[in-house]
Amino acid sequence: MKIEILEESDKKLKFKMLHSRYTIPEMLKKQLLTHKEVIMASGMLKHPEDKDAEFVLVVKNAKPRSILEKSIDELLKELNSFKTEMLKAIPENLETKAKSKPKTETTKKNTSKKKINAKKTK
Predict the structure, then answer these.
(1) What phi-psi label fits residue 12: left (phi over 0), alpha (psi between -120 and 50 degrees) or beta?
(2) For residue 14, what is the enclosing H or E element?
(3) How far lies 89's CA from each of 9, 37, 82, 84, 92, in Å?
(4) What is the pLDDT of residues 52-86, one digit of tens each?
(5) Please, where are the H alpha helices in 4-122?
(6) Domains contained in the chain, CATH given
(7) pTM
């Protein structure tokens, strides 16, 4: 993902996240808003068909870049924790289990319906 800085001052940072519409901007916004120094954090699309989100961060008693960096580090920590827990929860042989599952009743019913429909068309 590329980032384009649009505006920067002591209290405000405005940037564009290229090819990022909702997920990352929303995660970043929620994390930024946990900090007391943040007055405003918002990600937005100028138009519903835009591929790039513009993000505005306004802070008090801090530098926008430092709060942004801290929030990104916190997000990375949270995502790594999620990854660890998810990998623990998913068995390593998941593919083997999926292949060895017996056919469900729904599958058997669908097969018999196909045979009935085939007889009707003959």
Answers:
(1) beta
(2) strand 12-17
(3) 45, 37, 11, 9, 9
(4) 888 999 999 999 999 999 999 999 999 999 999 99
(5) 23-32, 64-89, 94-99, 105-121
(6) 3-121 (3.30.1360.10)
(7) 0.66
Q: Which two tokens stand for residue 59?
A: 């802070």
What is the reported pLDDT for 116? 59
Question: pLDDT for 88-99, tens place per residue?
Answer: 888 776 665 666
Place of tokens 């009935």: 116
The set of residues, in sequence order, having a beta carbon less than 8 Å from that of 9 and lying 6+ positions away, is none
How does DSSP classify residue 93? Answer: T
**Of the ranges 30-39, 45-54, 98-107, which one carries the lowest mean pLDDT score?**
98-107
Give the span between the Cα atoms of 32 and 112, in whole angstroms: 56
**CA within 13 Å, CB half, 14:** 5
Q: How many CA atoms lie within 13 A of 121 on its CB side?
A: 6
